[in-house]
Backbone:
């Protein structure tokens, strides 16, 4: 994991969320490395539509999983999503808004900057 990770805008990666604590490493950031098979690199504000979409795809993000330090998500929570799942949701018209400053540059291996920008939430307020 790099401490000088870059976001999709080419600047230093900003934290995504500390409550709930997100990230592949549960460090609040969408950091990644070769061990992160799911590429949890897109910082998004999850919506009910996205949570339902993800559940239909076999990934229940609403149910708490304490063994994975996961409290379960509700609409409005910020979370580091798998880039492929976000792209699937984008293609289906249910992509949640993203925070570009908090989205790791590795997301660009899966989606375009234009796709992310079309769903940009705006500036980062609080992680």
Residues:
């Amino acid at each position: 994991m790099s401490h000088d990770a870059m976001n999709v805008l080419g600047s230093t990666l900003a934290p995504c969320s500390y409550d709930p604590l997100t990230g592949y490493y549960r460090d609040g950031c969408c950091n990644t490395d070769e061990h992160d098979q799911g590429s949890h690199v897109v910082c998004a504000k999850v919506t009910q539509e996205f949570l339902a979409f993800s559940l239909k795809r076999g990934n229940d993000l609403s149910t708490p999983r304490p063994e994975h330090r996961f409290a379960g998500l509700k609409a409005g929570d910020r979370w580091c999503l798998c880039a492929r799942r976000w792209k699937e949701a984008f293609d289906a018209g249910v992509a949640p808004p993203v925070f570009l400053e908090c989205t790791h540059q590795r997301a660009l291996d899966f989606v375009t900057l234009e796709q992310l920008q079309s769903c940009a939430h705006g500036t980062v307020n609080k992680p």
In short: The mean pLDDT is 92. The two ends are 19 Å apart (CA to CA). Residues 83-92 form the longest helix (10 residues). The chain is about 20% helix and 10% strand.
